[in-house]
Specification:
Blueprint lengths: L3 H14 L3 H14 L4 H14 L11 H10 L4 H14 L2 H14 L4 H21 L7 H4 L3 H7 L2
Helix pairs in contact: 1-2, 2-3, 3-4, 4-5, 5-6, 5-7, 6-7, 7-9
């Protein structure tokens, strides 16, 4: 027989797998109400919010607090780091992405997750460089780039 917490976790995973993200999110939140230090529940809540966010009327970035909390509880949590890398890349936060990429290189060298972070960082660098091509420091076009990108390109 499963504990109440474990039963809720199983039910939440089943809801997520069957395409009921609203129920999954609610169940993970119920687990976290009683077990706020359950890093796995934070990761799974983040998974639901990240992957189903647009369907629920929210940006995928709404999952960032859940992944950040999971990482605070388990600093070596590769799934949380991977999602945070994706969010940083999507928002153009190059310095944040590089920090996460370096951590993944140490924690999970050569894994798909570490390679993905490297590709995201390289892609973001290229995108920023292309956007900055021909933009003089101090111009409105240069100012429109994210601060991380301006710093990286010294604009």
């Amino acid at each position: 027989r499963l504990s109440g917490r474990d039963s809720l976790l199983v039910e939440a995973r089943a809801a997520n797998a069957s395409g009921d993200p609203a129920r999954a999110e609610l169940l993970y939140q119920r687990v976290l109400a009683d077990h706020p230090d359950d890093y796995e529940a934070w990761v799974q809540l983040g998974e639901v919010q990240y992957h189903w966010g647009p369907l629920l009327g929210r940006a995928a970035g709404a999952a960032e607090p859940a992944f950040a909390r999971a990482l605070a509880l388990d600093p070596e949590n590769v799934p949380a780091l991977t999602h945070l890398a994706r969010l940083a890349a999507g928002d153009g936060r190059l310095a944040r992405l590089d920090t996460i990429r370096r951590r993944l290189d140490v924690l999970a060298p050569g894994t798909d997750e570490a390679v993905e972070a490297r590709v995201l960082a390289a892609s973001l660098r290229e995108t920023v460089a292309r956007a900055a091509a021909g933009r003089a420091p101090g111009t409105a076009a240069a100012a429109a780039l994210p601060a991380d990108a301006r710093d990286a390109l010294r604009l």
